[in-house]
């Protein structure tokens, strides 16, 4: 797997494309069971901030949740998005450390006045969030496209 540098330019997508075309900016570390891709949607909000989508695939466990946390922290601290959409459709399993990472991301996004949205929850992840009573804390949309339209 190739790790792409942070300073490489990203392909901007229109809102209508809703992520149909995607240019990799970063993927999970070599040997990792977690893969992430991120891209910005253009145009951004009137204040110049841009919505970001992070597509996540694989298992989010104690060995990979740190990568996800770094990704979220990097986007919130450096790019100052108006919203962050985590597309978790490709997540095969999320352990408690992954739930903790989602909660920390939500907390940090709220501190920076960034909308934090989860999309593409599978049945297992939805059930886990409901069972732990965390479901109501998150803004959740069925698809990325629907998340972008709200």
Descriptive keywords:
single chain, 150 residues, alpha/beta, Transcription Regulator spoIIAA, five-stranded mixed β-sheet, 4 helices, disordered N terminus
| Structure classification | alpha/beta
Roughly how many Å is the radius of gyration?
Answer: 14 Å
Please provide the ordered H/E string of secondary-structure elements.
Answer: EEHEHEHEH
Number of strands: 5
Please tell me about this protein's structure.
The protein has a domain at 47-149: 2-Layer Sandwich (Transcription Regulator spoIIAA). Helix content is 31%, strand content 24%. The chain has 4 helices and 5 strands, in the order ββαβαβαβα. Strands 1-2-3-4-5 form a 5-stranded mixed sheet. α1 packs parallel to α2.
Q: What is the secondary structure topology, with strand pairs?
A:
Blueprint: E1 34-40, E2 52-60, H1 65-79, E3 83-94, H2 96-111, E4 115-119, H3 123-131, E5 139-141, H4 144-149
Parallel strand pairs: 2-3, 3-4, 4-5
Antiparallel strand pairs: 1-2
Helix pairs in contact: 1-2
Structure, briefly:
The chain has four helices and five strands, in the order ββαβαβαβα.
